[in-house]
Amino acid sequence: MSQPLRMSGVSIDLKLTGGRVAVVRDVDLSVGAGEIVCLVGESGSGKTITALAAVRLLPRVAGMRSRSVVIDGTETRDITDKAFGALLGDRVSIVFQNPMSSLNPVLTIGEQLCEAYLTHKRGSRAEAEVRAIDLLERVGVSAAADRMRQFPHQLSGGLRQRVMIALAFMCEPALVIGDEPTTALDVTMQAQTLRLLKDLARDTGIGLLLITHDLGVVSRMADRVVVMYAGRVVEEGTCEEIFAHPIHPYTRGLVDCAPAHASNGGFLSIPGEVPALTATPVGCDFRSRCPSAHADCHREPPIREEGARRWRCVMDRKTAQAAPTPASAALEAEG
Amino acid sequence: MANPSDRAGNPTLSPRQLMVMRAVGHRGFIIGAFVTALYVFMAVAAPLIAPFDPLDQNLLAKLAPPVWQDGGSWQHPLGTDSVGRDYLSRLIFGARISIMIGFFAALVSAIVGTSIGLLGGYFGGRVDAVVMYIVNVKLAMPGLLVALALVSAFGSSFVTLVIILSLLFWDRYAIVVRTLSQQFRNQDFVLAARAAGASTARILFRELLPNLMNAVIVVLTLEMALAIVIEAALSFLGLGVRPPNPSWGLMISEGRQYMFFRPHLVIAPGVAILGLVIAINVLGDGFRDIAAPEDRR
Amino acid sequence: MIRVILRRIPMALLVALTVSILGFALLRLSGDLVRELAGDTAGPEQLAEVARAYGLDKPLPIQYLNWLWDLLRGDFGTSLFTGEAVSSLIATRAGPTIILALASLVVAVAIGVPLGVLAAANPNTFTDRLIAVVAVFGQAVPNFWFGLVMLVIFAVKLKWLPVAGDDTAAHFVLPVITLALSIMPQFVRVTRSGVLDAMGADYIRTARSKGIPTRRLYMRHALRNAILPVVSLSAVTLGFLLGGSVIVESVFSINGLGLLAYSSILSNDFPVVQAIVVIVSIVYVFLTLLSDAVNAWIDPRLRG
User: Fold this and answer.
1) What is the pLDDT of residues B126-176, one digit of tens each?
2) In a domain, A236, yes or no
3) Does the structure show a pLDDT above 80 at A263?
4) What's the alpha-carbon Rg for chain A, to the nearest Å?
């Protein structure tokens, strides 16, 4: 079975009036079949735009370069938008953040589900409807046949996100990308929806790439975690390793902060801010906030590898894990 | 759409200075403003630049051809009309009528429409229902027919023309201002003023109105352009500016019977209207871009 | 959908009633109706007699109610000049105006909406600017003048089309182009901004992420949402055209309602003017109701 996603050397620039801004730099990312990968980072870290780049849904002002973007065994780097459109929605699909506005208000649920199917599959409308109803039931939508005739505004936010998930699975894709799919839902719906997404991913054996800033979500969902900071991947490893033994000072800061603030407030506790993208320094991007920063950090840090574990820091595993974390350093400074 | 150049701009500039900077960089605005200014200059300085009195008839030189036709001369570059009046001079003086009537009709309707819209938008509830009712009645009436009937009943002096045209144009101000003041009425600056005990009149005129001015000015330019066209149309139909005054609409109407062998008698005043109206439209569109770049499409 | 209409009806009725009062007032504004009817040479006795005969000796509110009652029964009075029933006068003259209005609307929508979509699909490009230039021209050009110029070029010089009248379809070509040009810019603008709004919406991103072809994205997903204001604008424009075709009718000598209203205004034939104003207003009210219903049919959120 081919890998659902393997992209390497991805860089993205935004062309703004002030000039070019490099928002993503030389990112490698892959998702295996049956694997759930969480892409983690603060807002502005480039995680969402990296995922959008994989499916060519970048805003007009963005320009992308890559060595390779393979989706379900197809190298897409040099194919036309039209050819790419045949993969999009079929081999790869996305669940977006805001279910309230992500469904077309003037088309019924059934029309939208069937349209996605009929765009890619040879089949009758009746077959599409059978598949849609089946999927709606699997994502826990009751009275699915009736829902098919309803319009989005007649459904609650939680239901709409289930419809979005069903929509993503209509064509039995190899890869589903979830862009903070539960952020807009209330807390009780979040857990249910994640559970559902996970079950569906396990059942179908697809690769799931989940973009989130919520470490609670990560710990429940992920097989593997990729941490981004200021447009670069800074650390990558299995979920257990990342949470039990984080290496990169930034990851350690994140993990330290996570329990203190339950779900999403965690990042606020790392002192300092993400460097302005227009003024990205040469060398390690995290050094202005890193308690262990020293002269060497002004040079490009090496990428260190230990099996599946990779991190981008001048420090080796031992040194890094012995160093103070950003959050503890902040506590000391305050105390 | 957010304009990133604004954020990158020098933070010490005031909004007004930023507006001026954007204005200077906006080609449409500059061209529109320049051409409009040219017309206004033509209107103001008409007695100085027009070679003849626009009302002076010379029955010996009726329908003189323009300079580019056989028998034309530089004495009357655009020739003369059917009673021997210098056509160029009438064209120049025509700018006065168009601009004056257009501007005052747009201004009076701005005052009426803005007040109505402000009341409905700010007070809401029953006041707003009444406002919407009045606007609906206005929209339902065939404005041009009513205007024609009123002009025929009340005559067409400058003042009556302005008032009757104002009746045609106040509704768009009312709708725009009503929508905006609905948005503004619960914003912090209004709530703060209310908490500080400001009177209703003060809130309406000192807090809300200044925030609505840009939108009102945009509508004003568009309505002025429209008023100029409608004045010309009324005059063309013989129910606007009276002869012998030089209104462009009237000139087109008078030139109509000669248009087969003196087509410029019809074409010239039409082009004059077209130029002015396009310039005002472009100016207004430009002003909208400059005043609220986030609305730019 | 029926509920949508029912909810709008009270306001519609109120507006129609008000328009009838204003229409009635329009007649009284015009001066001494009794003298107008009796003629300049009439003495006081004749005047009183005429007043009695037409019910003009009664108080104004009673006169209004009588007039309204006649109106509801389809009796719009008689023309002061031809003595013809106003209703039949209007019936014979409405045809050309309705043809003119509908044809102009169809042409304006058929050209304006695609241009608006085209502009929205290529924002801030040469195409977009070119379409904007066409729109500004159409909006700025005085249509009586444009009509005359076209008349000279196509009817007089090239002799491709007839000069004046309303007998054949060919007679309507130039008037329809003239009117369509002046109403088209609004359709371009409304469509462009509606499609731009829709194309920036999350649901379009969703549709795009499903690999739905661009053309279908515009035609099915964006336009369906952007068409709502176009429907409303069509209703408003049609109402406007029915009452606003005076100018074009007079340029091209089309014997329609506009020309009838115009000549009646010039000859102080107020029952006719009054009837046209009231009828056009009520048709307008009806058209806006209809457009609300159509919009509710397109957009389920409006069905509530």
Assistant:
1) 999 999 999 999 999 998 999 998 888 888 889 999 999 999 999 999 999
2) no
3) no
4) 21
- What residue segments make up the domains of chain C, in order of their start? 94-303
Decide if pLDDT at A259 tops 60.
no
Domain assignment of residue B57, given as a range: 45-295
Alpha-carbon gap, residue A162 to A152, rounded angstroms: 12
A144, A172, A200: which is the final residue of a domain? A172
- Of B26, B269, B288, B278, the C-alpha closest to C133 is B278
Q: Name the residue facing A105 among C205, C213, C301 (closest C-beta).
A: C301
Residue B4 pLDDT exceeds 60:
no
What mean pLDDT is reported for chain A? 84
Q: Is residue A318 assigned to a domain?
A: yes
CB of B61 within 8 A of CB of B76? Answer: yes
Residue B16, domain member (yes or no): no
First to last CA, chain A: 55
Binding-face residues of A in 19-58 toward C, CB within 8 A: 55, 57
Model confidence at A261, pLDDT cuts 50, 70, 90, reads very low
Q: Residues C11-42: pLDDT tens digits?
A: 889 999 999 898 888 777 666 667 767 776 77
Residue A236: its pLDDT value, please? 92
Residues of chain B neighbouring A17 (CB-CB closer than 8 A): 3-5, 8
- B73-131 per-position pLDDT tens digit: 778 788 878 787 888 989 999 999 999 999 999 999 999 999 999 999 999 899 999 99
Gap from C3 CA to chain A (nearest CA, Å): 18
Is residue B17 in some structural domain?
no
Last residue of a domain, one of A150, A172, A194: A172
Counting the structural domains of chain A, the total is 2
pLDDT at residue B292, as a whole number: 67
pLDDT at position A188: 82
A contact chains, 3+ CB pairs < 8 A: B, C
Q: What angle do CA A270, A275, A279 make, to 5 degrees?
A: 170
Nearest CA in chain C to B284: C136
Residue A330 structural domain:
249-334
- What confidence category does residue B211 fall into, taking pLDDT thresholds of 50, 70 and 90? confident
Indicate which CATH number applies to the domain containing B175.
1.10.3720.10
Instruction: Tell me the chain A residues in contact with residue B8 when contact means C-beta distances shorter than 8 Å.
Output: 16-18
HSE-CB of C248 using CA atoms within 13 angstroms:
31
A175 in C contact zone (CB under 8 Å):
no
- Give chain B positions within 8 Å (CB) of C284: 139-140, 142
Show residues of chain A in contact with C197, CB under 8 Å.
none
What is the share, in percent, of chain B residues with pLDDT greater than 90? 45
Q: Is the model's pLDDT at A191 over the cut of 70?
A: yes
* C contacts of A119 (beta carbons < 8 Å): 210-213
Name which of C11, C152, C246 is nearest B263 (Cβ-Cβ): C152
CB pair distance less than 8 Å for A115 and C201: no
CATH class of the C94-303 domain in this structure: mainly alpha
Q: Does C236 touch chain B (CB under 8 A)?
A: yes
Taking CB atoms and an 8 Å limit, are C280 and B237 in contact across chains? no
Distance from C-alpha of A114 to C-alpha of A120, rounded to nearest angstrom:
10
Q: What is the CA radius of gyration of chain B?
A: 23
- To the nearest whole Å, the CA of B199 is away from the closest chain C CA by 33
Contact B185, B121 (CB under 8 A): yes
Which chain B residue is nearest to residue C128, measuring alpha carbons? B297
Q: Is residue A149, in this structure, part of any structural domain at all?
A: yes
Give the span between the Cα atoms of C245 and C254, in whole angstroms. 10
Burial of C135: CB neighbours in 10 Å, binned 0-12, 13-18, 19+: buried
Q: Which residues of C touch B297 (CB under 8 A)?
A: 123, 192-193, 196
**What is the Cα–Cα distance from A295 to A308, expressed in whole angstroms?**
29
* Chain B residue nearest residue A17, CA to CA: B5
Q: Give me the residue from B140, B233, B236 closest to C281, CB to CB.
A: B140
ipTM of the complex: 0.86
